[in-house]
Specification:
Order of helices and strands: EHHEEH
Largest sheet: 3 strands, mixed
Distance between the termini: 37 Å
Number of strands: 3
Helix content: 40-55%
Strand content: 15-25%
Strand order of the largest sheet: 1-2-3
Amino acid sequence: MPNPKRDITFSIDTLFDMQFNNHVHKFFVLFEELIDDGFVLQFARNDEVLTIIKDKGHLKNFKKSLNLTLD
């Protein structure tokens, strides 16, 4: 049965914890796949949503703003 909930919330702190770890890019591959499947990504801290991402362009800018781009 497909999941009717289209918004998925992630902790932004996880990305900061992984900032200098090359595996952080695997998260962004998953995020792109979720966006392709119509999901909306929300990044939060302490239950406060800090950003909402609905497209790959915004995701790319978000990743760049976190200084995670090692590639």
